[in-house]
Amino acid sequence: MRRPNEQADEKISKVKALYDEMEVAIQVQALVRDYLAKAQKALECLESFTGREATLLRAFVSKLAERNT
Question: What top-level branch of life does the organism fall under (predicted)?
């Protein structure tokens, strides 16, 4: 049988692990947002050169960005 302190330590350890995972997820989400913003800017440049295809691609990237915010 485990002692109460061991059980508490185990729970604290699990909470810390979940917190660390959440921090990583937040950082990844921020990176995704940054890359999507850069992609949108690049697509704005392409749009002026390639027309409709770039417009469709930009709409797709915008939808991805909306899902990740």
Answer: Bacteria
Residue 29 to residue 54: CA distance in whole angstroms: 25
pTM: 0.59
Q: What single letter denotes the amino acid at residue 48?
A: S
Looking at the chain, how many residues does it have?
69
- Please state, in angstroms and rounded to a whole number, the distance separating the CA atoms of residues 19 and 66: 25
What is the rounded distance in angstroms from the CA atom of residue 11 to the CA atom of residue 32?
Answer: 31
Tell me the pLDDT tens digit for each residue of 33-61: 999 999 989 888 877 777 778 788 888 98
Query: How far is C-alpha 37 from the geometric centre of its chain's CA atoms?
Result: 12
Integer Cα distance of 63 and 53 in angstroms = 16
The residues spanned by each domain of the chain are 4-67
